[in-house]
Amino acid sequence: MWEKIVFLSLFGISQVFGGYVFSKDFVFGAATASFQIEGAWNESGKSEGCWDHIAHYTNEIDDHSNGDVACDSYHKIDEDIKVLKELGVDSYRFSLSWPRILPEGFSNKVNPDGIRYYNELIDKLLANNITPLVTIYHWDHPQSLQLLGGWTNPRMVEYFADYARVAFEHFGDRVKLWATLNEPKQFCKEMIWGEGKSLGSVALDAVAPYLCAHTLLKAHAKAYHVYKNEFAKQNGKVGLVLDIPWSDPLTNTTKDIEAANRDLEFMFGIYAHPIFAKDGDFPKLVKDRVANMSKLQSFRQSRLPEFTEEEIKEIRGTADFLGINHYSTNYVNDASDEIDVLTPSTDNDVAVKKTVDPSWPASDIFWLYDVPWGFYKALMYVKNYTNNIPVYITENGFCEEALDDQGRIHYLNGYLQSVSDAISEGANILGYYAWSLLDNFEWHRGYTKRFGMFHINYTDPSRPRTARSSVKVYKNIIYNTKLNNL
Ligand code: NOJ
Q1: Residues with CB under 6 A from ligand 1
Q2: In the annotation, is 60 catalytic?
Q3: Running along the chain, 486 residues long, what does each successive block of 10 average in pLDDT?
Q4: 406 has which bridge partners?
Q5: Whose CA is nearest to atom 7 of ligand 1?
Q6: Whether residue 258 lies in the annotated active site
Q7: Where along the chain do its domains lie?
Q8: Domain spanning 8-483 has what CATH number?
């Protein structure tokens, strides 16, 4: 053991307790997102965001709650800094609220109070030696833009690039790590089409997710180029955040191995291939598959839009780093024989069935299990897919309400071990952000599901933050890693 420490130290990495291998520059952080924590939904010039609208006017939120107050982080910068300090993190990943900064959606009208709020947050983070990693868009665009079609509207590319430019202009002197978008796949497929999707709307379920992917990729690329062309002097890095749940073949039959691979191409490759593959563009497998299905369904053209040659070039290579959000694993088997190919839907395009192993430790939310080996496989897959681009794990965490959150602790230890193992195998992983710093508004699940290392009491108007047991564990991991790396 000690020989190993000496050996690894010589190479600038060290082995700390628990068997983790992290370099002294490895970044430990915690993450949140604007809509999920800020509250102050209509204060000081902020307009209605698309998620305000969903929460206020539909029945889609399990507990009929909304983001009106949430963790009240808009009024609680000091409290949030305090808990970040208590954890001892090096970095904080948070997102900007588009409707707070540009209430009408466009850059002709910048809300001074939106700028003031984020300036104050950034300054206080830096004063406390906490590096900001800022997500420009974590799903909350202004409702006015949703009325224009949201991400199915190709003009969103320009609106987003303008918004990103405002962010770079105002905060780029101090923010050096930018993620343009968060989890486009989740957003485009699950988040915004509302009841229409479950009612079997072809437009919303079989067409919109692909239009959304197409527009978001162009928007990301445009924002990247805005930075490189106009703000290169700020010397920061720009990337994006993709989610990659792991899909493992249920059996070792060719059919299931292909199904698992197909699932990953539709979830991850559809966003990663245009940016990281030498030839860019959507993956061939995805293009062929959607084109064939569309033809069978009597569409005259593929439901997946094409990129022009120029767009392919503009998108390729637009990431200095990749943010990876990972939570859980599924077994996947081929469902080609079970689907009705004549019914257009994105799920039918993929044609897989997903299951879990009942022996995996379950969290409080139906889709999340503690399967650390799946994380390891996902990280190695990302390494190969992206030619080992620098990666930050921008989200990883467990859903558990108990204050003595032993499930979260078990998950944290196992998943950090997987990060460490992947690093030992050459993966270029620079940091890890726990999701989440605080309990928060879990989208369609409202406040019924809790991901925070700090508990929030939503019935108390002052929204007290209380440490769960995992805080001590994460804090010790961070402290000991730094200590062993002096
Ligand atoms: C990923 C999303 O980015 C985040 O907003 C969400 O709360 C977590 N997953 C947990 O579901």
Answers
A1: 33, 36, 182-183, 325, 395, 435, 442, 451
A2: no
A3: 41 54 94 98 98 95 98 98 98 99 98 98 99 98 96 97 99 99 92 67 92 98 99 99 98 98 98 98 98 98 98 99 99 98 96 98 98 98 98 99 98 98 98 99 97 98 98 96 81
A4: none
A5: 442
A6: no
A7: 8-483
A8: 3.20.20.80
